[in-house]
Specification:
It is built from 3 helices and no strands. The chain is an all-alpha fold and about 100 residues long.
Length: about 100
Amino acid sequence: MNDIPLSPADCTTMAEVRVGVDALDRELVALLATRFGYMRAAARIKQSRGAVRDEARKASVIAAAVAEAEAHGIPGDVVGDIWERLVEGSIAYEFGEWDRVKG
């Protein structure tokens, strides 16, 4: 079996779908690693621990993800739920990094 994923429209078997999903999951984790790198940078840059949680920014990030999802024709509510968890996890990570670097 070929490990190069087909586009979703070109898949005709579940094996092809699974190759595509597995490849995409690896890419998503790599992107998340970069995103968490930005959280490390934020922790390094922010002068106070209180600056880590920014509810206005959180709401803006989630709203942007929902809008982007809807523009792509995928469920905004599902993406909103995922981003809620992603942003909260990022905030928790950033608190940990802030404490490690500056605490």
